[in-house]
Amino acid sequence: MKKVSEQSTSRRNKQTVSSTSFKKLTIQSFEQKEKTSHRNFVELFPLEVSLKIFCELDIQSLCNAAMTCQSWNRIIENCDHLWKHHCLTVRAVCQREIDGDRGNGYSWKVTLLRNYWKSIVKHEWLCGKYSNVHSRSGLPEKSMYPMDVDTWGEILEAELER
Questions:
Q1: Are residues 109 and 149 in the same domain?
Q2: pLDDT per residue over 79-100, tens digit each?
Q3: How many helices, marked H, and strands, marked E, lie in the chain?
Q4: Within 10 Å of residue 160's Cβ, how many Cβ atoms?
Q5: DSSP 64-130
Q6: Of the residues 3, 24, 32, 58, which has the fewest C-beta atoms closer than 10 A?
């Protein structure tokens, strides 16, 4: 009886060992697959395809993508063309500013960075968002942005036309 008990214990130990070995092997195999499957599309696709994908992103998503990893950042930071579409959208509100910056040799990205928030504030003023505000205390905190005299002149003209 003792011999039967020892044999069954021995079998259980072997099964446990083989089960543990199988689990380790499976986990190692899974981890290796994970490492190879985490390669990003920038490393897998031709540069033109990656640029086409990045061109579809809005400004916030493009900035977030640039912070994702070094390979994405390198492509996004070094391809000025990715910023052109967004800069031209801002130009609808800040034409004089955009044209001036581009004329001074600024890249599309730098031009966009210099004028993005200004365009948002200027657009809100031109649309009359602050027309019924009676004092400075009635203005939201982010309603002001350093703008030149010509820009404030545009805003005043729009306000007078209302």
A1: yes
A2: 999 999 999 999 999 999 999 9
A3: 9, 0
A4: 7
A5: HHHTT-HHHHHHHHH-THHHHHHHHHHHTT-HHHHHHHHHTT--HHHHHHHHHHHHHHHHHHHTTTT
A6: 3
**Structural domain for 93, as ranges:** 83-162
User: The whole model's pTM is what?
Assistant: 0.64
Domain count, the chain: 3
Do 33 and 53 lie in a common domain? Answer: no
pLDDT in tens, 42-82: 888 888 999 999 999 999 999 999 999 998 999 999 999 99
Do 100 and 141 have their domain in common?
yes
* Of 22-36, 51-65, 136-150, highest mean pLDDT: 51-65
* Together in a domain, 18 and 88: no
Query: Two tokens at 37?
Result: 């499957």
Q: Amino acid identity of 93? A: V
Distance CA 46, CA 51 (A): 9
